[in-house]
Specification:
Chain B: Keywords: Oxidoreductase. The structure holds 2 protein chains of 2 kinds. By secondary structure, chain A is an alpha/beta fold. Chain A has 13 helices and 13 strands. About 1% of the residues of chain A have low confidence.
Amino acid sequence: MRCPSGSALRPITDDDVRRTVGLHFDPRHGTPYWLERDRRLGTNALEKVRTLQDAVAVLGLKDGPDQMHFEEASRRTPLENFVPRSVLDKGGPLWAAQTGGTTGPAKHGTWGARYWADILDFSDEFLDLHGVPRNCNWLFVGPMGPHTTGRLVVAFAERRGGMCFSVDLDPRIVKIFGEEGMTAAYDRYVQHIWDQVAEVTRAQDIGVLFCTSRLLDMLPERLGTEALPGVRAIVHAGTTMEPETHRQLREDFFPGVPVVGMYGTSTTGISWQKPFEAEDDHRVVYVPCQPHVALDVVDESTGTEVPFGEEGRVRVWRLTDDALVPGFWERDRARRVQPYGVAAERYPWPWLGDPYSPEFTEGHRVEGVY
Amino acid sequence: MTTLATGALPAAPDTVAALDVPAYSGSRPVMSSRPELLDDGAGRPLARLGTAGRLVQFRMAQEAGKAARQLRALDDDAWFGLLRGAADRLTAKLAAGELDPWLRALSAAAGLPTRRAARGIRTVADDLGRMDEILAAQSPDGTVAAYRTGGGHPRWSWRPAGRSVHVRVPDNFPTINIEWLQALAARRPVLLGTSARDPFTAVLLTEALYAAGLPEGAVSLVHGDAPALRRLADQVLWPGEQVPQDLPPGKVKTYHYGRSRAVVGDAPPKDAWQRLAREAFAGCGRLCTNISSLVVLGAAEEAAGLLAEEFATRPVLPLDDPAATVPAFPDRGARDALAVRIEREIAAGAVDVTEAATGVPLRVDLDGRAFLRPTVLLVDPGSPLFGTELPFPFTAVAHVPRSKAVAACAGSLIVSVLGAGDGIERALAEEPGVDKVFGGEEFDRGYDPCDPHEGYLADFLFKKKAVLPGAGA
């Protein structure tokens, strides 16, 4: 496979950093939350942050009370506190995103029109790279409502010339089923989802299936192996996908059909799986969507990036006009991957391999639907 | 609590290198990029366990469905020869010491004395080698051919009630694996789910079976919960009494739970106490066949004292001591919770007869491991511990008048009757809540897979169908 020469992505530059800091830390037109934090911590970001290294040193959220303050504010205070006044004054649509709400009350964030458009651009780029067909219908099986993914996928389908059918699911009620040990209710809810999927696939011509990884894992078990004969691509998002599962999907259940992973969160952004190559060994490796979002994989004890090939905690930086997320410590862990293969030159910044959420893979919760 | 040996950390587990213990999709080992880690309860790693996601489980179930026909097509000599071959292979490896790292890991994970764990595996291998005898006992016509042919009755044919069976294997003692081996021997593809503290024994058996030529897909194995297998298997064998909510009642048979008791009359045989103690310590006191309650028609104090003397000859020893028979509790909190239950009864008037006989307190710490000292507790028959099965050698003893002895045994798996007279044996045999009654010289028969045990497993796995004409077709 060869990559086309143009890309909507590029490495983050110091200019990007200065521009974003200038926007969010402008004393009169900046972002209320970040200005208040700047005063509270005495960081003086506008003066001190000139480079990405400066941003890491001065702006980065500290795991603990500092990040907790940010998280709780994003749960309990008006969303406008996190948007520069200048952006609000300019007007234009702002998507009010909510996180899944599986780790507590939902956090809020925005996706401005510019960011939204950029995401759709580079998503098209990656979907084309993977050979996901255009001009066909999509079926989205995942959380709609306040969750960003549903709205994004509808936009993917429409931009690419198809309609998007959808089967909604509510990860928050599944969380309750898990915490209260309601395995029968969980099972019934999952069956309800698959019954709806079966109805849509019986009646509609579906070319692309978008599904949470967890549900995709159940697809043959619930619908059989012949349920989606016309499907020409599968896109998944959510929790980790084991290499063995990835292999089975590609080789056993959907041979010749692209199986593409998308990783991200509702308030930060998304990353796409690198183009599939044999040397991946069916591990799912993602390309962070710089310059909008950078994903570090760091050693929790030192806060520094782990060497390539090693596992650490995911830390996300979002540098966009409508929202700044300075080094948020995700719950997820992942492997830091040095770019390799056909896409290495095109996306020459660190990649992310096999991300997973420890709380969903350890302990005794009922498995989720993500 | 007492500490019989000092040292902050136990010595034995440090010598255990972490093993790779894969899941098996048929004969294919399945590890994962992020294996589950099994430790010894104190954080020291013992094994990396392969995890099998739902897609892998789906494939397992599909392959099992295909294997069913293949298993039924094998002739009896070839089939039971294959099982004997697997048993011989496993026994030879045990004898050669090749499984020592596995035994040490099993011991550290499950808290079993190493030698007892080895004996448990050897016993289950022995049973695997005589599956023809075990299955013939369960067959409607006394032959193993019936499992393949449906039997020769003119009006009905004995046919599988499912193409595959999911068996959850508990981790109390290796001999419990006999359950799924019987299902397999009955030519039923088996989808296994191991339990937290013993992922080892089922893997050893699975590897031995495939090495002996088991048809592909006849056994698959998942470590831990296997929700897809629960859904996809036609039938389920579930240990204990707490069945997952997502299993419909007709699909599942529970197994190897229950409490066993002994009724002691005025004239027990001379060696009664020694033999009863042996039954209480079988499987390190973790079996459903252990005598957990003694119904004494005469002087309960005397009976408790005699039994306690026998218990006292089996002290808490390090798990790697060849004479060790008492299990440790990998979960110290679980040990302490059990101790509190016993201590509450003592506070309410029960007598810890073994403490009097041995001077050893109930809670014992040895080499950093948590134990409960084998216990004979003299209680009132209304005590909640009278009739309760605890996972270590424990027997509650109470005086019960002859007129109430049968009622006191309701809800028993096995009732052993010693010197109590034929009348009680007959009455117990008529009691619907009693599964097995052993008296006379066979009072300590314990578990023999040729006996009905919660009924015969074959009665669940097969059903009589009217297939006319030609029931034998």
